[in-house]
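Priority: low. Protein: Acyl--CoA ligase. Input follows.
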Amino acid sequence: MNQPAVSPTLDTLFQRTLSGQPHALALLDPLNKPRVTGHQPRRLTYAEADTAIEALSAYFVESGLPANSVIAIQLPNTVEFVLTVLAAHRAGLVVAVLPLLWRHAELTAALNRTAARAIVTMSKVDGVNYSDLAMHAAAEAFSIRHVCGFGTDLPEGMASLDEVMARPPGTTRAVIQDGRKAAMISFDVTAEGFRPVPRPHFSLIAGGLAMSLEADIKQGATVMTAFTPMSFVGLASSLAVWLLCGGTLALHHPFEIDVLEQQINEHECQVLIAPAQLALRLGDSDLAARMPTLRNIIGLWRAPEQVAASEAWIAPHAPLTDVYLFGEAGLFGARRGENGMPVAVMPGPHGAPREQSGSSIAGEILLTPKGTLGLRGPMVPIAAYALPQPVDTLTAQLPRDYVDTGYAARIDRPSGAICITAPPSGIMAVGGYRFLSNDLQEWARRLGQGALLTALPDRLSGHRLAGRAQDNARAREALSELGLNPLMVEAFRDRSGPA
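Result:
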């Protein structure tokens, strides 16, 4: 009897390259890892990475984590993140990625919403004690049974995964490798509030294909990623792109420009994946002379409404591909032409590569009746964004077959292209951290009389928090009590003006 074709998983792609070139270099840690986490940088071949993945996967199985249960991960952009994700998938688990900017309140909400059975973190990242943060959040999440960490000085009760990787692998579990199975859960903020967004393997791979095919990444390339991995695009632009090209993945924990340039040159990277504004800054500084091995640049736009007004790309030896990001809903990419300017993006189905006739359809772009941008296609999790059914009607509503991103858009009459004009109303973003603008009022109220807290536009991170208070020490304390990350709390540096 013929068996139906099974789509690949991320682990399937890893094992495909492992079987063909086990001793090829697979993973490279950031050069500044001692400062970021206290660990020394690691260089792993595919065989060495597989041994570590086997050990971590066996630990998850031996710990009693059932197949298809959720394991939450809050890690920096280092080798440990990649190994943990692949090990979880090999053990048949679903990965919930938790941004590093999240603090206690958001962690607890995410763990409870996903019924996570375990959480994995790092002892410290950039001086912030994430192991204590995970322990406190786990104490308020009824479903958590295991708290695991990398690094030294872990709290009592937290299992050391460094010790796990140092011993031989143990128990394995037979897992059906099917790309239609759930792979990850990320988290988005919409006008309706905080929501988890689950995705299968094929959706992640579709996102990686859309980027790698549009940018024309060669097989066996060394890919440098300098984008925080704790989101759909973070996984698609790092793990998926790397596994699809079967090359080497070099990691950089954002951002130290000098260290990034040093890594690119030492590792002879051909591809750089980074926030678009950072990529444009590098392109303005004689990229061909300073980083001659680069052949492809993928710029990730957290604020896609800014693409059309961006400056020209002036490094023709390494073409720039603009990737438009729409929270956790989806993405699409467009490689710039010879003039270095952003290309027009037309509504309707788009292939990968975009300009090649007969290419596979990567997705579809549409203008909704509300004048906003809609997405559909293999990477877009339509069910996760489905609107609740109204309770005051007896007639079932037809399910929507697209996700409304909330980004204001219009059709340019002369060209017929889609023009994205504004971000979703009522939503702010500080780096990769999205929150409702109404939250600012609550945060400001906690700062005391005469305090000011606002989100200012920022070309690199979307917005940045700025504020002023009569008592800045008390302001920082109040914001910390609300669960804000220290990077955001430092908006209150002095009383002379906004940070």
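Residues 485-499 have pLDDT under 50 and may be disordered. The domain at 427-491 is CATH 3.30.300.30 (GMP Synthetase; Chain A, domain 3).
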